Amino acid sequence: MDIRHLQYFLEVARHKSFTKAAQALYITQPTISKMVRNLEEEIGVELFERAGKRVSLTDAGWVLFSQAEVMVKSFESMTVHIGELMELKRGRLRIGLPPMVGASFFPHAIGRFCEQYPGIRLELFEAGSNKVEADVGSGMLDCGVVLLPPKDDTFDYYSFVNEDIMLVVPSSHAFAGRSEVRFRELDGERFLLFHEDFALHNRIVDECVRVGFHPHVVYKSSQWDFLSEMAAAHIGITLLPETICSELDAERFRIIPLVEPTLKWHLGMIWRKNAYQSFALREWIRFSQEFLSERSRSK
């Protein structure tokens, strides 16, 4: 049994699709299908129930899945240890970044890191905070940025920004002349929010419900600049962090503090607690925390 058989089997099980698993592994579908079929013939049982393009694990498949995860993780840990013992200091680092965060905080940090460690291959994945947290937890990502605090205690993290969420309205809006707006006054407004993959979406909705109303959400996006342009077109209001608001045109928008309550944008870099940390991950955590701390002090 080749370790690749198990790696390919796990990818198919996670994606519930041979096609998606092949895309994730950058191989052809016939190749991964053949590998899984060889594994089934070697073990002597079917591992997947095939129904069109969708597949699901059989009872035997579930047994192998739990054991294969342990074996593959042990193998990956062993190879990383050996590489570090040889002082290659090379590897791959998979980082999840929500769209708002990547452009605002990380380009210079990533550039400096790549210059200092050219042997480390960075792979950046753009997704909302909820998706990033789930993928770090499953091991698909090594680390990532999320809205703090994380949903459970399986992560270690450091914080690098904690600022207010602001109300963004067009300059002709009824709130435009206000110095502050109470949260409950947003009742009846049309909301432009991030998708549910973004933790900020749930935070805003939950806060609306807590103060006594359900928000009327008319549009959801993954891009803050599109949400702001929709607001400028009088389609609705949106709520964005101070850092993002500083990039908006003061002639077209009014940025207003929210009170009773305030809503925070508290971000941190998370990684799995008690899991083996490669050289690349350990150095990225140290480097990025130091870089972002210096950036914060220089403001």
Automatic annotation (TrEMBL):
SUPFAM superfamilies: Periplasmic binding protein-like II, Winged helix' DNA-binding domain. CDD domains: PBP2_CidR. InterPro entries: HTH-type_LysR_regulators, LysR_HTH_N, LysR_subst-bd, WH-like_DNA-bd_sf, WH_DNA-bd_sf. It holds the Pfam family LysR_substrate. Keywords: DNA-binding, Transcription, Transcription regulation. Residues 1-58 form the HTH lysR-type domain. PANTHER family: HTH-TYPE TRANSCRIPTIONAL REGULATOR YBHD, NITROGEN ASSIMILATION TRANSCRIPTIONAL ACTIVATOR-RELATED. Belongs to the LysR transcriptional regulatory family. This is LysR family transcriptional regulator. It comes from Brevibacillus brevis (Bacillus brevis).
